[in-house]
Design a protein that fits this description.
Elements: H1 8-11, E1 15-17, H2 21-24, E2 31-35, E3 38-42, E4 51-53
Parallel strand pairs: 1-4
Antiparallel strand pairs: 2-3, 3-4
């Protein structure tokens, strides 16, 4: 529906985890990146692999 508002948790598909080491090794295209003091795993080919530490 065009007038529906999504909550913040429904918009975000990023996982928040304590350790990114296991997520980084799941896919060849995963990249570990530090931005603004946080660690992120990003994957341009498969955006479902996104994760943030902490």
């Amino acid at each position: 529906m065009p007038g529906c508002q999504q909550t913040e948790s429904e918009k975000s598909t990023m996982k928040v985890v304590n350790s990114l080491k296991s997520l980084r090794s799941r896919d060849r295209n995963n990249r570990l990146i530090r931005r603004k003091g946080r660690l992120y795993v990003i994957n341009k080919r498969n955006p479902r692999m996104k994760a943030r530490q902490g």
